[in-house]
Amino acid sequence: MLGNALIGLREGLEAALVVSILVAFLVRTGRRSELPKVWLGVAVAVVVSGGVTLALTLTQQALTFEAQEAFGGGLSIVAVGFVTWMIFWMRRAARSISADLRGRLEDAIRMGPAAVVVMAALAVGREGLETAVFFFAAAQAAGETTEPLIGFLLGIAVAIVLAYLIYRGAVTLNMARFFTVTGILLIFVAAGILAYGVHDLQEAAILPGLTTLAFDVSAAVPPDSWYGTLLKGVFNFSPQTTVLEAIVWVAYVAVVLTLFLLPQRSARPAAAATTPS
């Protein structure tokens, strides 16, 4: 539940900030007449994202057990790829995203009403589709039916409130620090989902080593205990972990966390102008 709440908070705040940037730009430039088109685009993005989640759920339910495991495992790996790309993209583009969105919206207004709707839908829809796939994979890993959804919706609700307060100037949030902290936490969440995906592929007999355990701490960390549930909900920790799962988890965290914590390279200075002879 907590892991899904983190997903909802992080992804929801990114999408909400995109919307607030577009709305603030239109309000400050006296183009309130364009707001309904932006909101229509946002609504389209939300519906499409919800439809993707529903389609994934229905598709999995129609499969055999082995096919479900293969589908869930493959989708978990895809979801981890999405969230990894998103973490690094946001770190790199955070400083320029506002100017980029304003420029694209300005171009869309000149092209016509349909372009504004499409631009808003694409700007929010990218976050929505990533969220849909990652939430589905996280919910499957959690093994629950309602708690992941409740946690996810709570995270979304908090994100919307935060974005509104930031827009109104009631709250000042250090966005760089926020995305850094949530990025680190999401790396551990993603590592758990990746390990779960590997386990699914092992159960589908696509990968070997299902019965080769790296450790079994079921006695010390019962799955139904409060701390076992907490570790499962946040990091998708399994008391019975195969060797391949452990290797994948450690390798992902070691590589991705190291790259994420490396200082960003500053932009190269522009080449000096050639002095005329």
From TrEMBL:
Subcellular location: Membrane
Transmembrane domains' residue ranges: 38-58, 70-90, 111-129, 149-167, 179-198, 243-262
Primary site of residence: membrane
Alphabetic keyword roster: Membrane, Transmembrane, Transmembrane helix
Pfam families, A to Z: FTR1
Topological relation to the membrane, as annotated: Multi-pass membrane protein
Family membership: Belongs to the oxidase-dependent Fe transporter (OFeT) (TC 9.A.10.1) family.
Protein's UniProt name: Iron transporter
